[in-house]
Amino acid sequence: MSIDDAVNFEDLRQLAKQRLPKICFDFIEGGADDEIGLDRNQQAFRDLPLVPRYLVDVDKRDLTKELFGRKYDLPFGISPTGLAGMFRRGGDMMLAQAARDANVPFVMSGSSNASIEDLGKLAPEHGWYQLYAARDKSVSEDMIRRADAAGLDGLVLTVDVPVHSNRERNTRNRFGRPLRLSLATKLDALNYPGGLMDYLKGGLPMFPNWLPYAGEGADAYKVADFMSSMPTPPLTWDDVARFREIWPRKFILKGIMHPDDAIKAAELGCDGIVVSNHGARQLDRAPGSIEVLPAISAAVGDRMTIMLDSGIQRGSDIATALCLGADFVFVGRATLYGVTAGGMAGATKAIEILRRELDLVMGQIGVSDLASLNEDFIFRG
């Protein structure tokens, strides 16, 4: 099967799996602990059937969505997904270009293999930056200033990594710093010439957003070590207020799962939140983001923009989130699988698959525009 033949999320996943050694695929695929959260994220959407309304004129369907004063062609964008450049050389910028071309937002990961400045040159109006607060706060503040200078449209502060999670696939595969690959892992890589050639041609991808702080002459390995030493500071609401003060444009908190935290974010002047359980990669026993969305929407839906990620695999999942109070949705693994499998064409394909599915779902349930989606379309039994 080629990227042109892919028709859904699972096809993209299988194509990515065929290209990547197990150590890399497990990094994308895996969750925390027993990976209960991965199943729960998907099951939570499946447990929310959509009720169709027929005898409605749906010949023309409008998928455009306004977000923070900007009109996008679709109600979903690309979530930050780290190490994209390790799975497909240049993957971060391919995702950014695909988002720009589709007129949707792209959030550059804090562990991107491309730079803030690169994104500013390619897609400033569509580019947001994900900030993982560094232990050295001067590093975080400088990254914020760089994102501002690059003209990026939004800053996304990820707040749901107070400590590193227990990702057992990574532990078994010895995926971490320092990288200690077993003989079995090295032999497995030989079975995947596409991914292996990317690595052999360029070595470990650089983390350019961290390069200025890692010391003069630092290579990719030293930068990776420095980056690993910086995250997981004691992030508090005081830091949120400080970063809000520094950043001049749209400021978003990612990882909000409780109504009280959403209220606090609104009180501190955050423009939006992303309801997210980090793709089930942090707390394995956390509820699905779609499960907590209604309560959060009820608490702050009239005060700030609410976005959602985690568990999105189908256009019907996007429709469900919009019905339950999300203003916008972000997808991560779908586009990461796409770019891994097929480069720029794969990233574009992932967006198109979700666009087509959402368009068909809207027609099936009897809505011609996104504003008509509401909780009345959710079957409660």
Give the number of DSSP strands: 10
Q: What is the helix fraction of residues, given as a range?
A: 40-55%
- Counting structural domains, the number is 1
- Which secondary-structure class do the elements indicate? alpha/beta
CATH homologous superfamily designation: Aldolase class I
Anisotropy-based shape:
globular
Main beta-sheet annotation:
8 strands, parallel
CATH architecture: Alpha-Beta Barrel
Read across the widest sheet, the strand sequence of neighbours is 3-10-9-8-7-6-5-4
Round the mean pLDDT to the nearest integer and report it: 93
The gyration radius over C-alpha positions equals: 20 Å
Report the order of strands and helices: HHHEEEHHEHEHEHHHHHEHEHEHEH
Quaternary assembly: single chain
Low-confidence stretches: none
Total number of helices: 16
Give the percentage of residues in beta strands: 5-15%
List the topology elements.
Elements: H1 9-19, H2 22-29, H3 36-46, E1 65-67, E2 70-72, E3 76-78, H4 84-87, H5 91-102, E4 106-108, H6 116-122, E5 127-131, H7 137-149, E6 154-158, H8 168-173, H9 183-189, H10 193-202, H11 220-229, H12 237-246, E7 250-256, H13 259-267, E8 272-275, H14 289-300, E9 305-308, H15 315-323, E10 328-331, H16 333-365
Helix pairs in contact: 1-16, 5-16, 13-14, 15-16
Which terms summarize this structure?
globular, 10 strands, two-stranded antiparallel sheet, 381 residues, alpha/beta, eight-stranded parallel sheet, TIM Barrel
